[in-house]
Specification:
By secondary structure, the chain is mainly alpha-helical. It has ten helices and no strands.
Amino acid sequence: MQTDPTPSPADKLATASQPAHAGASATSAARRRADARFMLTHPLHLISLGFGAGLSRLAPGAAGTLFAWAAFEMLNRYFTVLDWGLLIVVGFLGGIGITGFTAKVLRTEDLRAIVWGEIVAFWLVLLMITPIDFVGKLWAFVVFRFFDMAKPPPIRYFERRFKGGFGIMLVDLIAAFFTLLVIALWRMSV
């Protein structure tokens, strides 16, 4: 009885074709790093990472939400409500595949740098509360960031249950709905 089996020719070939640092790279290959170089390797990564907003070392989700706010302010001069509705629906549905692709390449279910979900969700919030002054938009930003970061129930449940691009987009959409609920309740109480 042999305790140490002799490697087969296929095993020898596989071992010979691996670089000497294969053991070290196997652990580092478990997750790729999202950086500017990675973002520019594919147009879908550029979208997933919020055109660079998600690469912020400090609070990438907040940076993505601020990008959404700035983009909304710029585009709102030219877009109708129907245009925004179409952009949000297409952005959400397309975002499922786009963010899922980037997450798969990065070898993760959800990476903080993937902020397309925050962008589309905050566009929805801004669309639903407009017209409103700067202070109102600032409060909407704060409330949305709270729900996106804290992920109170049932948001955390959905985050654990749904993975990939659908999960990434869904969790941010639910945070947007909770934000809109808080704003609606606040408006009713005033």
